[in-house]
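Support request from a user on the community tier.

User writes: "When I paste my structure tokens into the form, the page sometimes reloads and wipes my input. The last time it worked, I copied everything first. Here is what I submitted, just in case something in the input itself triggers the reload:"
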């Protein structure tokens, strides 16, 4: 799976990493639904951390079609309500 973090670049996620990212994505959705801003920020930052550290960063010359586009790290809780709903960003 190819994930793009807006403003940062693309990452290729192996299946096990995708599953971990999906778990954080689900936690973000739960936090947004509960209007829990602290839980939102913690889960969202951890999701980004896993993508950045465990995903394979694709160089600028290697452009792939993104399967998922993740909002930038400075996304606010208000902005997240439009992005993280239902099943979230990462398909189960």
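"...and here is what came back when it finally went through:"
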């Amino acid at each position: 799976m190819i994930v793009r973090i807006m403003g940062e670049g693309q990452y290729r996620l192996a299946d096990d990493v995708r599953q971990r990212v999906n778990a954080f994505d689900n936690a973000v959705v739960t936090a947004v639904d509960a209007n829990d801003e602290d839980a939102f920020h913690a889960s969202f930052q951890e999701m980004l951390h896993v993508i950045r550290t465990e995903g394979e960063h694709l160089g600028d010359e290697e452009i792939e079609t993104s399967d998922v586009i993740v909002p930038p790290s400075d996304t606010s809780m208000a902005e997240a309500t439009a992005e993280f709903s239902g099943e979230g960003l990462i398909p189960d």
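Agent notes: The reload is a front-end session timeout and is unrelated to the input. The chain has a mean pLDDT of 91. The two ends are 12 Å apart (CA to CA). Escalated to web team.
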